[in-house]
Each structure stands twice: as C-alpha cells, then as structure tokens.
Amino acid sequence: MPTAEQNIRRALKCLALDRSISITSFEDDAVYGWPDLAHSLFVRCIREQWVPDIVTAAQAFHGTVLAMREPGGVRPAMQVYFIPAPGAYFIGIDLDEEAPALRHPINTLRHGWRVLWKTVTRRQKDQDFIARLLDKRFGPEVADG
Asked: What are the residue ranges spanned by the domains of the chain?
C-alpha cells in the first residue's frame, strides 16, 4: 500500500513542484518541509489562484491561518498550508480525496463527510484510494529506472 509521502511526492512531481519543497518529516496523511529559495510553491498557489481555506478551518486542522487548495474540483486535490517559523515559514502538504468548492457542491458535501468520519473514527485517509485517484488524474505510475 502506498504511503502519504509516496502519493504526495508523486503528485508534486506530476505538477512539476517536486523541487519546490525539501521534505523533512511526514505523518500518516501529510508531509512537512522547507520551501525552495524561490518560494515557487507559494508563488504558484498565488498565480494559479489556489483557493484559500476558511481561516478557522486552517487554524483548527493545521495550526495556521493560511492554507490553500488546488482549484477546479480536481481529485485528489493538493492542500498546502504555510506555517509561520522564525524569519521564514514551514510547509505542510496533504492530498484530499476531493476539495470543498462552491462550484462543486457534491465535493463539498463529500469532503465534509470524510472530515467528520475521520474525526469520529480517528482513521487516516485511504492512501490506496488516493493512489487510484492519482492514476485517473495523471495516468498510471511508471517506475523510475
């Protein structure tokens, strides 16, 4: 079964963002790291108008006030949160099965249900399902080498 780190690294590579973060740690559902010197991930989020999370949700779930998601109702949707650090910021990234969006109300309902379900059951995201969504979005993964 793929891990969140493997799925997130794959998504970063497919989005040509694999050099935008130096991953230093990971959890069951997310990775964390430092941005590249050009801050290319932050710049891309702004340039492509990634959707900012509601501040209270960003604070409650990620401990920060700035979190952004890929636009357009893509599945899976990358979420990036920028965590203040002395003189800099740290980055957290996860992949959501679907992201809430006004133009995609079904995704919003599904996302809310999944967040509630995972909170109540204390379960993690199904990384096999995330990998299948990545296959649908980017094509089957091809092994390096």
From this structure: 4-138
Q: Distance between CA 11 and CA 4 in Å, rounded?
A: 10
Closest Cα to residue 17, out of 33, 3, 1, 2? 33
Q: What is the pLDDT of residues 40-80, one digit of tens each?
A: 999 999 999 998 887 767 777 777 878 898 988 888 999 99
Q: What is the pTM of this model?
A: 0.84
In the chain, alpha helices (H): 4-14, 40-47, 55-62, 105-121, 127-138
User: What is the rounded distance in angstroms from the CA atom of residue 80 to the CA atom of residue 144?
Assistant: 26
**What local confidence, expressed as pLDDT, does residue 81 receive?**
92
- Burial class of residue 122 in the structure, from the number of CB atoms within 10 Å of its CB (0-12 exposed, 13-18 middle, 19+ buried): exposed
Alpha-carbon span 130 to 19, nearest angstrom? 22
User: Which residue type sits at 132?
Assistant: R
**How many whole angstroms separate alpha carbon 125 and alpha carbon 111?**
12
